[in-house]
Design a protein that fits this description.
Layout (H helix, E strand, L loop, with lengths): L1 E2 L8 H8 L9 E4 L3 H12 L4 E4 L7 H5 L3 E3 L2 H7 L2 E4 L4 H7 L9 E4 L5 H13 L3 E8 L13 E6 L1 H11 L4 E6 L4 H27 L6 H15 L18 H17 L5 H7 L6
Helix pairs in contact: 8-9
């Protein structure tokens, strides 16, 4: 059962944004999952004028979206029935399976933006096909504040049938830029997890750096600026990691080993755990 939101009281800012874009055709869709990311996605689709049906396990999360014009479904099955395009943005793959257990997916196009592994994406695609649905996998490379902000640099990776992606590309591009990475359905998940793994290691390294200077009377704000600038300066080198070692790289193994050893000695002197350095550098002198 779907309860219509009080569209007679829309957010005035949303109405203004919608009224300025008459050329874009509105296409209905359903969104399952209203966490921080799901809510951000929903706001952008509503602001762009797309009829949106939403469902969330905790109904209270849908109140704001109902005021913006979303239709709120009482069950996930009802939400799926409301639109030909169904987007899931849930906690994990198990949550997707549970939410869609009683839904009729016949003739639906299912786009899963839930973080998953490549194997889970493959299994979900097979499962969807067995239920009569076409499937696209997606990986969101953004945090909620970046959704609906084109200049923020966020984007969403997609994999699966190219024709299906092209069919829904305009709608999918509303929240953030899109990047199609291939027909192999698990590629979006693989790219997603690989990129997130690098990000996780970067933040772990930043925490390690702050731990080193924590008791040295250092201005942490100033140090944070230096750290951010240094990481940004080093970032272009990352693009070459997948290729063979550049002939122009004249750094000797002995120099690298000596530098790594100094990092380890400093961490030990400062009482900071060395596990991250050892894992990052591999076999290091003095380890």
């Amino acid at each position: 059962m779907i309860a219509p939101g009080p569209v007679d009281q829309p957010n005035p800012h949303v109405r203004q944004r919608i009224s300025t874009d008459h050329a874009r055709p509105s296409r209905p869709l359903t969104l399952l999952g209203l966490g921080a990311m799901g809510t951000a996605l929903a706001r952008t689709w509503l602001a762009a004028g797309h009829p949106l049906t939403v469902w969330n396990r905790s109904p209270g999360r849908s109140t704001e979206l109902a005021l913006r014009g979303a239709r709120v479904a009482a069950t996930a099955a009802d939400a799926v029935a409301a639109s030909p395009l169904v987007v899931t943005c849930l906690l994990d793959d198990a949550s997707v399976r549970e939410a869609l257990a009683d839904a009729d997916l016949t003739g639906k196009d299912l786009v899963d933006l839930t973080t998953s592994t490549p194997a889970e994406s493959h299994a979900r695609a097979v499962w969807a096909a067995g239920r009569g649905a076409r499937f696209l996998d997606g990986g969101i490379m953004a945090v909620p504040p970046m959704i609906g902000a084109p200049d923020a640099g966020g984007y969403v990776l997609y994999s699966g049938t190219r024709a299906l992606f092209d069919e829904h590309r305009e709608v999918l591009a509303v929240p953030a830029a899109t990047r199609y990475v291939g027909a192999e359905v698990g590629l979006a998940a693989l790219y997603d997890v690989a990129l997130l793994s690098a990000m996780t290691a970067m933040f772990a390294g930043a925490r390690h750096a702050f731990a080193l200077v924590a008791d040295a009377g250092v201005d942490e704000k100033e140090f944070g600026g230096l750290l951010a600038g240094w990481l940004a300066a080093m970032a272009p080198a990352i693009a070459g990691f997948g290729a063979a070692t550049s002939a122009e790289d004249t750094t000797s193994p002995a120099v690298v080993e000596a530098g790594d050893a100094a990092l380890l000695r400093t961490a030990r002197e400062r009482g900071v755990d060395t596990a991250l350095l050892i894992a990052s550098a591999g076999s290091v002198a003095g380890a």
